[in-house]
Structure formats: C-alpha cells, structure tokens
Amino acid sequence: MKILLLEDNQTLNETIKLRLELKGYKVHSYSCGQDAYDNITNGYSCFLLDIHVPNVDGIKILKKIRDFYADCPVIIISSTVELDIIKESYSFGCNDYLKKPFFIDELEIKIDKLCNIPTNEIILGRSCIFNFKESVLTVDNKRNDLTEKESLLVNLFAINLNKLVTYENIQNYVWKGEYASIDAIRTLIRRLRKKMPLTIKASSNRGYYLLLTEN
User: Fold this and answer.
1) Residue limits of the OmpR/PhoB-type domain (predicted)?
2) Contact status, residue 64 vs residue 82, Cβ threshold 8 Å
C-alpha cells in the first residue's frame, strides 16, 4: 500500500515514515504543501495530512484529493483546536482527525481500520518474531515484553536490517528528537541484547547494525 504523508515537522515526519515503512508500506513524505499538492495523483491508497504547512494548506489538498479519489482514506493530523477548521475538514471529506501530540500507535490503528489492514508481525530470523502492536518479542516461543524504547529500537533496526543505524537516528526515533546521551543509548542496547538472539554490532562510535543471521 502506498501512502502520502504531509507533515512539516521533520522529526515527526521521519518518525511516522519509518514506523509505516516497517509495516511494508511505501510512504512518500512531504514537508511542503505544494509538493504534496503536485503529487496526489500518483496512485495512493491513504493520505495523512497536516493542515498548517508551507505554501498550500492541507484543506486545499484535501479538496483536490476528493476530485480524484472518492473513497480513499484521508486522515488529518494537526495541532489546531479550532472547531471551524475541524468541521471544514470533515465537510470536505476527511475520514478521521488526529490531534497532536499523539502516539504513533494511534495513527497506525486508524490507518489499519480505515484501510482494513490486518495485524502483522515481523519475522527476525527463524526463532525471533516481533509484534509491534503489542511490543512483544517472541524468541523460541518464549514471550518477552518490551518497554516503549526497546520496542521503538527494534522497530528502527527492523527497518534497517544489516544497515548502520546512527546515534542520531536512534535519538530522533527512539527518544523522539529529545537529547539522549551515548551512555543512555548504550544501556538500551545492552538491555535489548539480553532479549533477542540476533547480533547487534557496534560501529566505531557511529552507531549500530542489527545483523540478521539464520538461527
């Protein structure tokens, strides 16, 4: 499934994009309203729109979407609390409205419901399965409950199997853009290594690799 995401907060944009790509979705993300407006006819199955973005606002984009896609789900994600704008969004055909700040899980639930997507699990090797919905890592049929940060880190590694995940990537995704010391990140890595059988390899103070090996 292909999704268009319009969000001008770069950290939130990247977080949503990474999380949805983990589920196997193709996400075309934009921070400029004009860029999104110019590309809405590229065969999308779902639209995620912020309202207050540069150049062309989300309401105008929503109107154009409905000229081309009568039934395609559109979810507005916005910090606005102005009732008139919320009413206008629904009057022009948005399917749901999510007020910032929100948990990414909330957005996933709405997408799954509107697009009729079943719950999926991610297989990390023969003996390791990660359920991102429940934040559970199953190893050799043994359930390991993960903390929120552990779950987000597994998400990030799963998107980037066998690729470098930098300290900056981890800070932006797991700590949601807030500062995280190297020691805090290393402590989280140590905890995760105890819960999963895959190799997490450090890379010369740049970050880590999750190496997918056959078990």
Assistant:
1) 119-215
2) no
Calpha distance 11→170 (Å, rounded)? 12
10-68: per-residue pLDDT in tens? 888 998 998 888 877 889 999 999 999 999 888 788 999 998 898 998 889 999 998 88
Three-state DSSP class for residue 57:
coil
Question: What residue ranges do the domains of the chain occupy?
Answer: 2-115, 122-211
CATH of domain 122-211: 1.10.10.10
Q: What are the φ/ψ torsions at residue 39 (nearest 5 degrees)?
A: -120, 10
| Number of alpha carbons in the 13 Å side-chain half-sphere of residue 55 | 12
What CATH architecture is 2-115? 3-Layer(aba) Sandwich (3.40)
H or E stretch including 207?
strand 207-211
Cα end-to-end distance, the chain, whole Å: 30
C-beta separation of 68 from 26 below 8 A: no
Q: Is beta strand 122-123 parallel, antiparallel or unpaired with respect to 128-131?
A: antiparallel
Query: Token digits for 87?
Result: 């009413």
Secondary element (H or E) of residue 149: helix 148-159
